[in-house]
Specification:
This protein has 93 residues and is mainly α. Helix content is 73%, strand content 0%.
């Protein structure tokens, strides 16, 4: 007795479903604005980091540790939030 005749449902298990005909709508203007905000925060954090690394001083270090890392952290949180929001919109989460 072959495995295919013993378990016919297994031969169908890996068959991919046809692509969905419903197109995913493009991102809204609010989503683009939020992502743009995350980008600006990340670039600002990068600018503060480069200021600290190129011209080290006490003020640059303080700005890097408080403002730079804070803007990087906020940008990452916003980015992850937008990924989760997009996955929910696509019903993947």
């Amino acid at each position: 007795m072959s495995e295919e005749t013993a378990r016919p449902e297994l031969s169908q298990a890996a068959t991919p479903s046809p692509p969905s005909s419903a197109a995913i709508p493009p991102a809204s203007a609010a989503s683009r604005r939020i992502m743009r905000t995350a980008l600006v925060l990340a670039l600002f954090g990068l600018a503060v980091s480069m200021w600290h690394f190129l011209w080290p001083s006490e003020l640059a270090f303080t700005a890097f540790m408080s403002i730079g890392q804070g803007s990087f952290g906020l940008a990452i949180v916003i980015y992850i939030w937008m990924i989760i929001r997009d996955l929910r919109r696509r019903r993947a989460l």
